[in-house]
Amino acid sequence: MSAFEFYFSFFGLLLGLSAAVAMTGLADALRARKTVKLGWLTPMLALLVIIDISTFWVTSWNALQGVAITYASIFLGLLIALPYFLAASMVFPKDATEWETLDDYFDTHKRYVLGGILFANAVGFVGSVMGGLEIPLLRWALISLFFALLILPMIIRNRRVNLGLMGLHCLVNIAPAFVSYG
Hints:
It is built from six helices and no strands. By secondary structure, the protein is an all-alpha fold. The chain has one domain. Helix 3 (71-89) runs antiparallel to helix 4 (102-130). The radius of gyration is 17 Å and the shape is globular.
């Protein structure tokens, strides 16, 4: 087993568990749909989390091919993967029936979820830049938009605006799958 395979099995497992916990929350919420109104915001937040984890996973696969196994690299992986897990765990309430609507839950918990994603991506980004990653101008623009679309819903209270911002964030996040920007 190469150092990359060893590292990525650990890192990938944590990211995979994060995606699974978000989907488990969605399944629980869908089971409770007769007693609680789902709304659009929390499911959109779950989609954002799943897409972000997926794109981060692919980016990491490409960026970490030469990773060395050190305490620093393991701790860096934890600084990225554990906030994802925490964020994914908080997308949906433990008991959806305690809330009148999941949109109300979103209003009180969005900062934790989006903040966890923001933190994980900021750590990954800083680590990449410190590792010598060269970033073309168009990618800088997309990275700036990416971070802005995480921060804005944290401070904006309008539900429709937040829904639009999160939808746009999902599109920006999956854009590299369809567009090459150098």
